[in-house]
Amino acid sequence: MSGDIRELPLFPLGTVLFPGGLLPLKVFEQRYVDMTKACLRDSTPFGVCLIKEGREVGEPAAPHAVGCLARIEQWDVPHPNLFAVLARGGERFRILGAAVGANGLVTGRIELLPEPTRPDTVDRACREVLRLAIERAGADSVPGPIRLDDAVWVSYRLAEILPIPPAEKQALLEMDDTAARLAQLHALLLSHGIIENINKNK
């Protein structure tokens, strides 16, 4: 729900999580082990943000202001104090304020962002590139169900798989307008020569 303000633990990472995306994690730092236990106990999400400054391990990293909720779908404890977790991306959010706990865990006061706009049509090049990528890598290569006629789904899944820097993925995550995100993805496909290669192979 847009405008919903809440507090939740933040997990700054060197990767961008998109709504509906899957995120496998190996959790071993004590602050995140405690966070994982609390999320499982209370059935609550945590927030994933791209690191703006710092590193994943050690001193608390400074996150980008926009992130994505993550809900744990699968988990295992292969060793004591090691969680193998599979989380799925939920709603996007913006950090309004943050505090670092005694254990180094960052807690954010966050506001959920509006649902992205849903255009009636999907950029043809974006859909074709994603379709071919799924065809080559297999249906399990993207989080299902596959919805190639859903502009929002196509834009998020294509943003996930494109070989672009995390900062560019972050910019795509922050866009509220799906048509604008698809237009940016189309431009990236052109700049990387991907559309030209597809047209040559037709």
Question: What report would you give on this structure?
Answer:
There is one protein chain. With 202 residues, the chain is an alpha+beta fold. The protein folds into two domains: 5-112, LON domain-like (Archaeosine Trna-guanine Transglycosylase, Chain: A, domain 4), CATH 2.30.130.40; 124-201, BPP1347 like domain (LON domain-like fold). It contains six helices and seven strands. Helix 2 crosses helix 3 (151-161) and helix 3 packs parallel to helix 5. The longest helix has 14 residues, at 124-137. It starts with a strand and ends with a helix. The mean pLDDT is 91.
Brief characterization of the structure:
By secondary structure, this protein is of the alpha+beta class.
Layout of helices and strands:
Layout: E1 5-13, E2 22-27, H1 30-42, E3 46-53, E4 62-63, E5 66-79, E6 82-100, E7 106-112, H2 124-137, H3 151-161, H4 166-174, H5 178-191, H6 194-201
Parallel strand pairs: 1-3
Antiparallel strand pairs: 1-7, 2-6, 3-4, 3-5, 5-6, 6-7
Helix pairs in contact: 2-3, 3-5
Main attributes?
202 residues; Archaeosine Trna-guanine Transglycosylase, Chain: A, domain 4; LON domain-like fold; 2 domains; 6 helices; 7 strands; globular
The CATH class of the largest domain, by name, is Mainly Beta
* CATH architectural category of the largest domain: Roll
Largest sheet: 5 strands, mixed, barrel
Question: What's the structural domain tally?
Answer: 2
Q: Structural class of the secondary structure composition?
A: alpha+beta
Indicate the CATH topology of the largest domain: Archaeosine Trna-guanine Transglycosylase, Chain: A, domain 4
> Taking strands numbered 1, 2, ... along the chain, how are they ordered across the largest sheet?
1-3-5-6-7
SSE succession: EEHEEEEEHHHHH
Average pLDDT, all residues? 91
Assign the CATH superfamily of the largest domain: LON domain-like
- Total number of strands: 7
Shape: globular
* Ends distance: 43 Å
Q: Report Rg.
A: 18 Å
Unreliable parts = none
Number of helices: 6
